[in-house]
Each structure stands twice: as structure tokens, then as C-alpha cells.
């Protein structure tokens, strides 16, 4: 595996603790229209998404919402989504930084 290769996988239940921790941080949410969120708010939003994504995939169908976790070497970096009304991403503070370096490395 290339040292700069990222993995994208559909959202699963075990991703929630990482997402909860990420979206509780003001530095992560400063450029989006939501957050920082409580654990309860994050679970209320993401648990139904996990259920609908996994149910669709179990039937061999594409999910209505495409929400992915982004990892590097198994470490959670953030998430991205393609939704019927928007696309977006959130990254942990440590995964952001110098955008020029990110483009060159990733």
C-alpha cells in the first residue's frame, strides 16, 4: 500500500465513536453550518444513516445517502458524503493543515 493511500468505506456503527469525538470539536466545525455537537445529537443524526446505508447494502442496493469514513493505515481521518442535496467533508484537525502539502502527499 502506498504510504499516502487513503481508504474510504461506507459508514458503519463502529465509526460512530470517532465521528462523535471529531464533531464535538469547535476547530472541526468552524467552517460548516453545524456543530460542535453533543454525543446525543451526533448519534441521533448518524445512527439512522448507518442503519439505512447498511440495510441498502445488505440488499445489494445503493444507499440513498453515500456517507463514508476516511482512514489512513486504519486511523480515522474524517468523513465525506454525497447526499441528494449536497456533498461535503469533515476532517479531524490533525488531518488538515497545509493544503499544498496535503495535495502533494495525498
What share of the residues lie within helices? 25-40%
Low-confidence stretches: 98-106
How many strands appear in the DSSP assignment?
4
In round numbers, the mean pLDDT is 82
Cα radius of gyration in angstroms:
14 Å
Structural class: alpha+beta
Query: Which CATH-level-2 architecture?
Result: 3-Layer(aba) Sandwich
Count every helix, treating DSSP H or I runs of 4 or more residues as helices: 4
What fraction of residues sit in β-strands? 15-25%
| Through-space gap between termini | 13 Å
Shape: globular
Major sheet: 4 strands, antiparallel
State the name of the first-level CATH class: Alpha Beta
Strand line-up in the sheet with most strands? 1-2-3-4
The CATH topology name reads Aminopeptidase
Q: Mind telling me the CATH superfamily name?
A: Gcn5-related N-acetyltransferase (GNAT)
H-E order: EHHHEEEH
Work out the count of structural domains.
1
Q: What is the multimeric organization of the chains shown?
A: single chain
What does it look like?
The chain is an alpha+beta fold and 106 residues long. The chain has four helices and four strands. It has a four-stranded antiparallel sheet with strand order 1-2-3-4. A hairpin with a 2-residue loop joins strand 2 and strand 3.
Can I get a quick summary?
The chain is 37% helix and 25% strand.
Task: Describe the secondary structure blueprint for this structure.
Elements: E1 7-10, H1 16-23, H2 26-29, H3 39-58, E2 66-72, E3 75-83, E4 86-91, H4 99-105
Antiparallel strand pairs: 1-2, 2-3, 3-4
Amino acid at each position: 500500500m502506498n504510504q499516502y493511500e487513503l481508504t474510504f468505506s461506507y459508514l458503519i456503527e463502529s465509526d460512530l465513536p470517532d465521528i462523535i469525538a471529531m464533531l464535538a470539536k469547535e476547530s472541526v466545525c468552524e467552517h460548516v453550518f453545524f456543530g460542535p455537537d453533543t454525543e446525543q445529537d451526533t448519534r441521533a443524526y448518524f445512527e439512522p444513516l448507518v442503519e439505512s446505508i447498511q440495510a441498502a447494502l445488505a440488499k445489494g442496493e445503493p444507499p440513498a445517502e453515500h456517507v463514508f469514513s476516511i482512514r489512513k493505515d486504519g486511523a480515522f481521518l474524517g468523513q465525506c458524503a454525497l447526499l441528494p442535496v449536497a456533498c461535503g467533508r469533515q476532517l479531524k484537525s490533525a488531518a488538515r493543515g497545509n493544503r499544498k502539502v496535503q495535495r502533494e502527499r495525498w
